[in-house]
Batch of 2 targets.
Target 1
Amino acid sequence: MGASSCAASSSPRTRPAPDGSASEVRTLSGTFLEPPVPDRSASGRIAVVGVGETDYGHDYRAARAGGPGYVAPDAVTLGRRAFERALGDSGLRREEVDGLCASFPYGGPDPAAFAAALGLAPRHVMAGGGMMPLLPAANALAAGSCRTMAVVHALPSRALGRQYGGQTYGGSGRDSYYYYHPWGWSSQAAHWAFMFTSYAATYGVTEEDLGAVAVTLRAHAARNPNATMRAPLFLEDYLASRYVVRPMRLLDLCLVNDGAVCVILAAADRARDLRHAPVLLAGWAAARVSHSKMRAMALEWLHPQLAAAGRAALGMAGVTVADVDHFEGYDASTIHLVCQLEGYGFAERGQGLAFWKEGHTEIGGTIPTNTGGGMLSEAYLQGWNLLAEAVRQLRGEAGARQVDGAEVSLFSFATTESAHPVVLTRGT
Amino acid sequence: MVQRRPNRVAGPGHDEFWAFCSQGELRIQRCEDCGHWSWPPAGTCEACGQDRLTWSLSSGVGRVVAWCTFERRYYAELDVPWDAILVELEEGPLFVSNPSGFTNDRVACGMRVRVAFVDCEDDAGPFRLPVFEEA
């Protein structure tokens, strides 16, 4: 991974942004693009043919209420529920599911044991091995390892009492999650706070401007019966919510809830015979920071990585950003989502918050964004609920939040150091 | 007064950094091949991948480029609100630290700062921590 370098430079201090934009925004952090040149011939060959989710809102309320008799769900319980719904949704018979990808980032059984728990005897099983195993699963399918692959992502975040900061968190992998303990700096929220304070100073925006993101996504969640947070939210409520890491408020940060998502993949030609219009994986790319993650995140707002990956994914799909009907972006925080809209080119850099305030991201706007409420108001499933929402939109099943004529979706998985866009299109 | 702090990361590379701090020096690894300054400590240059890194003296001068204040408590040792700043040293690296002699009530991005060392201790013993005061 990362052995090949596309936009990365051996002299990063003088290199223009990898999108080659006229603004000549310099990138000091470097970008790895993986794969360097996505294979056009792979476009549209794999389809999502089934989708299932757990009851986010219901389960969250049950967890909050607690009390005697409440049993917190585990990864298997959640994953099984999502799988059964996806199976029912697809119209496939159980024995037709001959591949399984089990994704349990916070722990769970090995894939073979999980297959047995689902009553499957698949030809191919694999572990997710990361937060976004969609493409490895699609690749296994394309390589002929199986004909139908169920990908299950289960995340009992709340049941496990998952913490997102402090000395017990991290300890391996990413420096930024553990290295700064002596200075008292850790947590996801602190990443977003750095990102926003530098952004605000550079572009002259305020905390109040940021509120438009939370308010808009809550309005979307109000149209989604399965969303966790549906009560109306106004800017005054946002401004009154408590700070977690100033200037990030509770309502700037994604939820912590239990849930699972299952998508079932099949070859596109086979998908035509199934119950729903297939949703095609039309283009994808992944880019990550090659060095100086802190700089990329806090001072470049991941724009170089997002721009490089977005251009590659859209190019693979043979569409432009103007063709995208709606956007499902990884909203770990309000500012994270804003930076994605800018990095992919939906909004001008530095104009992302004005873009929200002008209504462009609303359902009915020019680029409806996180139409199910996102991870801020629907559920935190590490992006998988956003993928499920894109599938529903492209099928025309999104009910009160349906984007008229949705044919092209951009789904964006992203972290503090990587961007992984996937273009989905409505097949026939 | 010695401040109690959460534990440092220890080991090769890290221990050298704290030993220099105890002498009142802010030293950062600099690549002999490409000149890039890497922080936190690494085995190879994050910019070019070469492994000839030399602990080089930083001027300790930089500017605040981002800040945050913890209102939720993440560490038993530290009271909230707890201020942190991100300093861009004039040699290039970004350094997560704390303000000294000022608070984030009046922090501003672009503020020029200079390193200072405060006496601290953690489970591994006493050490001197680089923080930043207004320049």
Target 2
Amino acid sequence: MSEIVLEVEGLHTYIGQHHILQGVTLTARRDAVTVLMGRNGAGKTTTMRSIIGLLHPARGAIRFEGQAIEGMAPYRVARLGVGFVPEGQGIFATLSVDENLRVAMHRDDAERRDRLARMLILFPDLDRFRHARAGTLSGGQKQMLAIARAFVNPQRLLLIDEPSKGLAPIMVEHLIAALRAVKHETTVLLVEQNFAMAEVLADHFFLIDDGRTVGEGPMSALVSDAGLKKRYLGI
Amino acid sequence: MKRAAPVVIVLALALLPLLGMEPRVYLTLTVAGLAMGMLIFLVASGLTLIFGLMDVLNFAHGALFSWGAYAGFSALLLLNRRAGWAESPSVLLNALALLVALAAAVLVAFVLGIVLERAIVRPVYGQHMFQILITLGATIVLEEMIRIVWGPNDQVMPVPVSFQGSWDVADVIVLRVPVIAISLGLAVYAGMLLLLHKTRVGLIVRAGVESGEMVQVLGHNIHRYFTGVFALGSALAALGGLMWAVFRQSVSPAMGGEQLIFAFIVVIIGGLGSVTGSLVGALMVGLSYNYVAFLLPKAALGVNMALMVLVLLIRPTGLFGASR
């Protein structure tokens, strides 16, 4: 078993008066892809936003490489080497593609410029529309931009929230290929509703329901467990 | 070209009065209008950052304008009393005195801007009603502080002698202070464009305006950047305040309030967040005020409002505004 990068323990998070997370526990291991699955409203996005620091948990612990990060400001968590690709991409529509990539660089150094150049080779569309406004890109291209943007910095953990949402099947294929190309470089925690995509990419799964962790195991175990899939994913 | 349309409209409007007056009068009024426009732009440029970009309805902008004027006033007074720099016939000493006054104005407003943003603006981002209330409150406090420190009455600004009076260029009267204001305005315009579009800080600020949350997630402390932008906007208000005081040759505690409304009109005409829009808007307001004051004196005060209504009817987002 490889080293644990992220450890979430008994996490409780409120949004306003609503008690959304009521005990989420999960781990992500070095250089593996861990997928977080569950029905709509189960608390997947809330879990991601609590980890990156956009939401402050009321109780529970989040440790990143042994360091407690719960309640820490998002920019500090990001600086530790945690990347975040939010649901709906979160790209800057009025900025150009190039500016979107450059704004993500924590520092403007040679290493990051090299990485940026690599991303443009990996995603030729981004290179072609480099000076276009990001708002004019197609949904798939926006998602590629969001992922490329997260990889501009050398990340030790990458949180990706529902990258396939709203994409055409052909774009999902492209996305899977792109994520496969970069997944060995970093630890990934993925939220994904598209089971086919999760199946191909993930090594390990966690299931949450009503704000609680209700199952975990190697991805292959979930693939073959029809009862678990039906009960918590409705498939 | 869609982007060229506002420029064409402005030029057409600027040439229209030529039908009703002699060319020489027209030139004099045009120079005066450009100067007034540039003075207004100096105030509006700061508001473009704070209101246009950061979406903060900052009514304390006028108080910062006054504080800048008074800080510069004190610096000039001191330099003149101790060293006689303003009364000296030396252009160099005069220019130095003005530069020190400008630095004093900018410094005082920059520090005040940091304090205001941290203490009262930060808790009310995104809440317009609270912004209006709390910045109006701050305005009252800041204005009263001026009355305590400098007294309640108007005072005469010791304008360095080299910058008083006017030049007569081919029968067109060109006042000296407005020429300085025009140069300063152009420098501020160029500086703002460079800062916003050619630097990393500008890039992060433009991104932060679109989504502060996402900029944070990318590892930038957005609060620090917004404090900086607010302080910079405040410093620009002070620059405008000092130039206005030099132009009028006087300072008064309530001087900022009168200019604030012009600045808001200009930012709205130009389109929220557009520096170029603010420049064009300010020039339109300055020019139309001067032309109308000559042709139809009684209509001069209403013309700016009419201009704003007209612009908003044709382009609801302002001349250069992007729809959000």
